[in-house]
What we know:
Elements: E1 4-13, E2 17-20, H1 31-38, E3 42-45, H2 51-65, E4 75-79, H3 90-98, E5 104-108, H4 114-127, E6 133-140, E7 159-168, E8 174-182, E9 190-191, H5 203-207, E10 214-215, H6 217-238, E11 246-251, H7 256-266, H8 277-280, H9 287-297, E12 306-313, E13 317-324
Parallel strand pairs: 4-5, 4-6, 11-12
Antiparallel strand pairs: 1-7, 2-3, 6-7, 8-13, 9-10, 12-13
Helix pairs in contact: 2-3, 6-7
Bound molecules: coenzyme A (COA).
The site of coenzyme A (COA) has 19 residues, from helix 1, helix 6 and helix 7.
Amino acid sequence: MSVNVFISGTGSYTPDKIIPNSFFEKVGSNDEWIYKNLGIKERHVVENETTSDLVAKAGLNAIENAGLQVGDIDMIVVATTTPDRQAPSCACFVQDKIKAYQAVAFDVVAVCSGALFTIAVAHEFIKTGRYNNVLVIGADTFSTITDWERRDSVFFGDGAGALVLSQTTDKDKGFIDFDMHSDGRGKEHFTIPGGGSEQPASSDSLKNKQHYFQMNGKEVFDTAIKVVPKSIKNILKRNLISIDQIQYMIPHQPSIGILKSIAKTIGLPFERVTTNMDKYANTSGATIPLVLDETHKAGKFKKGDYLIFAAVGAGWTWGTALYKW
Ligand SMILES: CC(C)(COP(=O)(O)OP(=O)(O)OC[C@H]1O[C@@H](n2cnc3c(N)ncnc32)[C@H](O)[C@@H]1OP(=O)(O)O)[C@@H](O)C(=O)NCCC(=O)NCCS
């Protein structure tokens, strides 16, 4: 019997320490510019916590929200660019932390599109009937790969968001379609060049700050405002759904300027774009599940609402998912 895949629970966790925009005056930035252009007021950053600590808390929160036990989880997939270590996966750290030893656990790397791609992977395992409940978690601690002496340190914050995806025989809810893309020709525009096989960690790589992220902001902006609207239009068209039927967009949040441009191009009133950038900044892999959790727990979704998930990230990677609540 064919099943649908729905979101049975959501959860999130952000670390306590908050860095306000005023902190960045020493690197030549300021609150007014950051809020106007990026939509950020403050960001949370880790102190004595690892990515898997955030993931474990968000994950347990989502399992509880789904009304399930840890033992019900068949698979754990984590989207992160900042795992605790290069090996093993962050998912294996989390499996051990929450004692979900019956679950298979692995990571997916698609940077800011990570949560969307991870949801798509989990979706396929449930849709084929192999698994019943999959814990999907997006989490990042970009504070650990940020050069705090540079002006682009304003962009990111740390956090984790989680969802449990489960099977249902209700044909009238769940994921309807995914539209996913990658283009490796964009690989230099957002990258962490050091510490891999190309430039193994060395005193030179440290001295040259190769272990911090490097971003071409203009390329990110120009690419995001082009590829995301195209993907949204594609997925709506092939499912015969109009933009007026979309109740909320649940986007990855690179900057408020990018979100406003996307909303304008697709004709979606900005009130229907869910955002929490003011509090958390860009949380990379965590953003989509984090804002989903907040919006869900604020009671905003009603049965039958159509949602559009949208993401763009390094690689390039980008895509959308259409969902009926
Ligand atoms: C970063 C971004 C705002 C820069 O704008 P830009 O027009 O492409 O590039 P510029 O470097 O010419 O900057 C434009 C102006 O903003 C100012 N500026 C850029 N970064 C700044 C910062 N962190 N703080 C204060 N001012 C800043 C520049 O000084 C410049 O001012 P000027 O016009 O008075 O000279 C824009 O490219 C952007 O939003 N990119 C998206 C990046 C992103 O979302 N990254 C996260 C996901 S990977």
